[in-house]
Design a protein that fits this description.
Distance between the termini: 24 Å
Radius of gyration: 17 Å
Shape: globular
Largest sheet: 8 strands, mixed
CATH topology: Rossmann fold
Strand order of the largest sheet: 1-2-4-3-5-6-7-8
Number of strands: 8
Number of helices: 9
Order of helices and strands: EEEEHEHEHHHHEHEHH
Structural class: alpha/beta
Number of domains: 1
Strand content: 15-25%
Amino acid sequence: MIPATFYCDVDGFETEITDFHPERKDAQFIICLHGFGGSSQTFRRLAPVMPEPFRMWSISLPWHGNTQSEKTSMQLESYTHGLAKMLEEKEIGHVFIIAHSFGARIAAMFALLYPDRTNQLCIIAPGGYYPPEDFMFRFLGSFPMRRLIRKDIFLRPFVSFLIPGLPDEKREQTTRALRHISWSFPQISLKARGELNRLRGYTGKTLLILGEKDRLLRASYAPKIARYYTDCAVEIIKGAGHLPMVTHPKQIRDLVLKYRPESSS
């Protein structure tokens, strides 16, 4: 079946959503949230290997993919409420969330605000826990950097340094995303908002996956992330870097099935 793409309002963002399994009418929904510089297509290699019980919806986050808005910043809590409202309007009650990097900030907030609607949380190389990541957003969002990053002449080379080899169109989009996300600090920071120590309020299952060779979030940092959750399993994928759902989709699938709650079987 060919994936279907549609658009919904999420907190004032005209949001691109890819339904990878539109034919699976009665399956359990998986909501996929990509990382910085990604899009709803980030999880396209995971979709074909996910078994019949699951139906994947992948969301292009603000300023990514084909998601559009006149808004210049976002708030983590407000966006999460908007996501929950959209799912409710689509008559989707309970969800399994798979989130990567920056998207894991939203996933954590969703589990905290809507624990009864979160069947399980799978966070892959999650953002918001490793201090240098927030340092970058804090620096770029500070005054006078806020004015400086309005100009692509500064920000574009910075993006090229962060993510070498990006095609021109992708680099332009990523530059725009970095600008607006930086302007959103501290409202997109779990730590600055004081949310990290509240995450233990989510008592459901959490699966933390890191790549053995991830240079952005070292696998050795896993225990420091896991401590914020009440029930957290940790898995390190050998040979994987920062994008294991792209390079090792079958291993991600196997781990999802291994830790799937019995109640959702």
